[in-house]
Amino acid sequence: MTTGAATTDDGTRVRRRVLAIAILASSVAFLDSSIVNVALPAIRGELGGGLAGQQWVVNAYLVTLGALILVAGSLSDLYGRLPVLRIGLIGFLVASLAIAAAPSIEFLVVARAVQGVAGALLVPSSLALITSQFDEAARGRAIGAWTAATSAAMLVAPLLGGLSIDLASWRWAFLINVLPIGATLWLLAGLRIADTRRPGVRVDLAACALCALGLGGIVFALIEGPRLGWDQPAVLAAAAAGVVLFAGFLLRQARAAHPIMPLALFRIRNFSAGNLATTFIYAALALNGFAVVVYLQEGAGLSATLAGLASLPVTVIMVLGSSHVGGWSARWGARIFMTVGPAVMAAGAALLLTVGRPFDYWLQVLPGIVLLGVGLTLTVAPLTSAVLGSVDAERSGIASAVNNAVARVAGLLVVAVIAVIAGGDLDLAGFHRVAVATAVLFAAGALASWAGIRDRRGT
């Protein structure tokens, strides 16, 4: 009896350590993806670049992240979750130091692209680690806890970044992740588990290049088109090359023996429906995150710290509710949560149309932010569980990678067209146009979930 109790206690401690590693490693990537938005006005003020420069600072990271996260899923399945996590953490640390020392906007954009390469190694391996170490009964609650903690990190990041910017410099904001990186590496050093591998998996670097160059060409055209003119040869050539290269990537995936994005996964109903919902929801989140934080500083005149504080209610709501929603979703099914959550967020985005002059955060912004927090809490854990739960554990690494790639590419493309949506710069009229587009995207996510997701009990 004593031996059994000890074994149970040891297993519980290992699972807690695994969950802590997964949370910290993912939080590293999420911290910077949120901090960058609040830092954009300060970066623009010091290094220049205008709105296009701000878009590139965000999208250089998302291009490499979105393309290489697929390779990271295969690497995770081939070499194991733990080695891939270690390499990603060290690479992210080096890239963060380079960003903090950036002498020009061009250098910063390149460093952000390198950071995206490292970030691509973190999230799929973290989620796959949870999937492989927790049984089905405990997985929903574990993913709920992961969602709550990583979302809290992502959403409190603007506050931490704002304090760094106001008290010191935007450069210090990109060094916040040094502590979680150190803590995660320390926890990994003491972890003793049997890592999950899939012998025979191959990594298709040519497909990765096609994906990255294809997305890069499309994004270049979307960002530079409004500035240079849509009829300029450079814009037209980039758009055409991007479309052809990305089509080549999809064609290669359809024919490859070991694809980095197995198109066969999309024949699984919940996987394809979950990724369609992910496309709409995460495009809306990226659009909202960029526009709100930048407008609060450049349009409403708030400091970086106050702009960061504006999203704090979302953090509080997610910390309080996400672990509960994960358990409820496991019991009642994901479909209802994935439908109601985005619908609530659509209402929150629509409330941002009340923003005007004189500006009043409490009446014009806070109600929409609260609804965003409630909707996000209802959505994220069930969405993650629905997508990962639709495939077997051996393919959880690549399934997580595909879902994360879909989310990042959706954000990448919508940020690339933000100037088109806003009709120029993010003045008040442009902010209202973005709010409408955000509400429409959230509503589309709700409809995709209701029409596509099927719970196991067949509802």
Text of the CATH class of the largest domain: Mainly Alpha
Rounded to an integer, what's the Rg over CA atoms? 21 Å
Average predicted local confidence, pLDDT: 87
Outline the low-pLDDT stretches.
1-6
CATH architecture of the largest domain: Up-down Bundle
Describe the main β-sheet briefly. none
Number of helices: 19
What portion of residues is helical? over 70%
Strand content: under 5%
Tell me what the structure shows:
- By secondary structure, the chain is mainly α.
- The chain contains 19 helices and no strands.
- It has 2 domains: 366 residues, Up-down Bundle (Growth Hormone, Chain: A), CATH 1.20.1250.20; 56 residues.
- 80% of the residues lie in helices and 0% in strands.
- The longest helix is centred in the N-terminal third of the chain and has 46 residues.
- The protein is globular and about 60 Å long.
- It starts with a helix and ends in a 7-residue tail after the last helix.
- The N terminus is likely disordered.
Write a brief structural summary.
The chain is an all-alpha fold and 459 residues long. The protein is 80% helix and 0% strand. It contains 19 helices and no strands.
